[in-house]
Write a structure and sequence with these properties.
The protein has 443 residues and is an alpha/beta fold. Helix content is 48%, strand content 9%. It has 19 helices and twelve strands. It has a six-stranded mixed β-sheet, covered by helices on one side. Strands 1-2 form a two-stranded antiparallel ribbon. Strands 3-4 form a two-stranded antiparallel sheet. It is elongated and about 95 Å long. About 2% of the residues have low confidence.
Length: 443
């Protein structure tokens, strides 16, 4: 990792801050204006940091704000060292803004710090710099950098400058890590070692999934190269519906695997809250983190959040309906693929149904499909007892792919226990009986 571009940028920021402080206190400075300070040159330097700077063709002001937000993550003492040397008498200096953290004891820059550094006391210039923190600016629009919300009734610019953690990691480590599952990000990254050949589905379902895969691969071409962005909304919304164990989650994982996209399975138990406004807050955090990443968001058992709205009988119904309306808007605005999975198509609110570009049915496999599932599920090192007729078993017992895998796993355990290398019919039948019992059925 070449750290020189960042080191040079911090030196540049230090010169700018020292110059501003000297000019403010009427001291002799090497430069009459910040614009006279020689800007760093990064020709021939290819790092995530320089690539980012080049991608956005950042202005002097944007570059300085970025470095202000980044400095505490690299040199915790950066601001305190410069301020103490420029103001040897010490004391409070409110014009420069800044706050102290609870655990981090160094100086943390705020919006006021940026205004002081870039504009000083020039009112017109301060208004111009404030545009960098507007919602339409790419810093905010692409969730790169923002001002933390201040306390009630305090100026917006008193909020702390916050650089998204993924960009801190990208600039310092060369790559951003995946977000950690928790209350702040209620979704788990899912993947699979399986391949498309391992997914046994009926031809119509397979055809629709291939169409979905094509959109993931070529959607950007249609939107941007073919200039369709002003005619159709970005993003894609799909509904997978059908009984449990029919391949909905595996399909989402395979779509990610074969299109090089991260797939995140949303834990709705951590999203939905009984407290008013908390569900929307959790959803907002999730979608904001996912924006512009190309992630596939997979909402399993989506009925609990995307279900039909009810008639308003009390305040609870009113806020529940508001949650659905908010979610509808967030899903529609998301620029990636959103997949909702449900056991029943009819459980999903009609407002969502109208906005799905693809509705894909995952029925229970038919007899010939079940036979293929049995054949693929049995380990290659295991032989099948001659008395086991997979064709007959597949035709007689209606099982999902997940059921069959559970039965094979059970048979594997029984076979290992007796040091065997072949499945017995009795063990397969015991496994089938166990799966049927889960659903209250009898073999």
């Amino acid at each position: 990792m070449n750290v020189q571009p960042i080191e040079v940028s911090l030196q540049y920021l230090a010169r700018a801050l020292e110059t501003r402080l000297k000019l403010h206190f009427g001291q002799k400075a090497d430069y009459a204006h910040l614009g006279e300070i020689p800007a760093p040159a990064f020709e021939g330097e290819e790092t995530p940091f320089t690539t980012f700077i080049d991608k956005y063709q950042m202005s002097f002001e944007e570059y300085v704000v970025l470095m202000l937000a980044m400095a505490p993550h690299i040199q915790p003492h950066f601001f305190d060292t410069i301020i103490s040397s420029s103001i040897p008498e010490g004391g409070d200096f409110p014009q420069i803004g800044g706050v102290r953290g609870q655990q981090f004891r160094g100086f943390l820059p705020t919006g006021e710090t940026a205004l002081f550094l870039l504009a000083g006391d020039n009112m017109q210039r301060r208004f111009e710099v404030m545009q960098i923190f507007a919602e339409e600016h790419f810093f905010s629009r692409e969730h790169i950098l923002h001002l933390e919300s201040p306390k009630e009734d305090e100026p917006e610019t008193s909020g702390r400058l916050r650089l998204a953690q993924e960009y801190v990691e990208l600039f310092t480590l060369g790559a951003a890590s995946r977000p950690k599952f928790g209350l702040n990000f209620p979704a788990k990254n899912i993947s699979t070692l399986m391949d498309w050949e391992d997914l046994i589905l009926n031809p119509q379902t397979q055809k629709q999934i291939r169409e979905l895969e094509s959109w993931i691969k070529y959607g950007d071409v249609i939107l941007n190269d073919w200039e369709m962005k002003k005619r159709i909304k970005p993003g894609f919304r799909a509904l997978f519906y059908g009984p449990p164990g029919t391949g909905k989650t595996l399909t989402a994982s395979l779509l990610g695997k074969y299109t090089q996209r991260d797939v995140y399975k949303v834990d709705l138990s951590m999203v939905v809250s009984k407290f008013i406004g908390e569900t929307e807050k959790n959803l907002s955090s999730l979608f904001a983190r996912a924006e512009n990443k190309g992630w596939i968001l997979f909402f399993d058992e989506a009925d609990s959040l995307f279900g039909k709205r009810t008639n308003v009988r009390d305040a609870h119904d009113k806020y529940a309906n508001q949650e659905v309306s908010y979610l509808l808007q967030r899903v529609e605005d998301y620029d990636g693929l959103v997949i909702l999975a449900s056991n029943f198509k009819g459980n999903i609110d009609e407002a969502f149904m109208r906005r799905f570009q693809s509705v894909i049915h995952f029925p229970l496999p038919k007899a010939d499909e079940r036979q293929k599932l049995w054949e693929k599920a049995i380990p290659p090192v295991i032989t099948v007892d001659p008395e086991i007729d997979l064709s007959q078993i597949a035709g007689k017992y209606e099982l999902s792919g997940a059921n069959i895998m559970n039965i094979v796993q059970y048979a594997c355990l029984r076979t290992v226990e007796r040091n065997g290398r072949s499945f017995k019919l009795s063990e397969i039948m015991e496994g089938i009986a166990r799966e049927f019992a889960k659903e209250g059925k009898v073999v």
